[in-house]
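Dear H.,

Thanks for agreeing to be a second pair of eyes. The structure we're designing against is below in token form, covering all 121 positions.
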């Protein structure tokens, strides 16, 4: 099975683009790819379910639906620890399937040859 890693930096201020990126990750998971997601910078806010509930793209896709799909497919959402710290997020505030990750772990993921592709948004 092919492995894909999505790195997303767009937060609620760019909800349409962020939802589209998460939609592609969810679609890949539905197609049978092994998908993981790194949330960086403002994108760490998507790990809070209450934030995702009210956001989506202009074409109607909801961020919360994309997250639910990824969780259902056992995808891991890696949360940049420094990014989340700066935004006062705590590990207990996050949706199911999240893993707090520091910079070295994120670099390990991005350079892991087990991933067939690393896609950035």
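And this is the sequence the design step returned. I haven't edited it by hand at all.
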């Amino acid at each position: 099975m092919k492995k894909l890693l999505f790195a997303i930096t767009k937060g609620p201020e760019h909800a349409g683009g962020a939802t589209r990126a998460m939609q592609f990750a969810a679609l890949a998971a539905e197609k049978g790819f092994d998908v993981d997601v790194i949330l960086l910078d403002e994108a760490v806010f998507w790990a809070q379910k209450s934030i995702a509930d009210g956001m989506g793209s202009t074409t109607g896709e909801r961020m919360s639906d994309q997250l639910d799909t990824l969780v259902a497919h056992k995808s891991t959402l890696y949360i940049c620890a420094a990014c989340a710290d700066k935004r006062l997020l705590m590990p207990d505030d996050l949706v199911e399937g999240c893993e707090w990750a520091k910079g070295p772990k994120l670099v390990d993921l991005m350079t892991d040859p087990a991933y067939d592709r690393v896609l950035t948004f």
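Two observations from my side: The helical segments are 15-30, 49-53, 63-72, 81-86, 103-110. The mean pLDDT is 94.

Warmly,
E.
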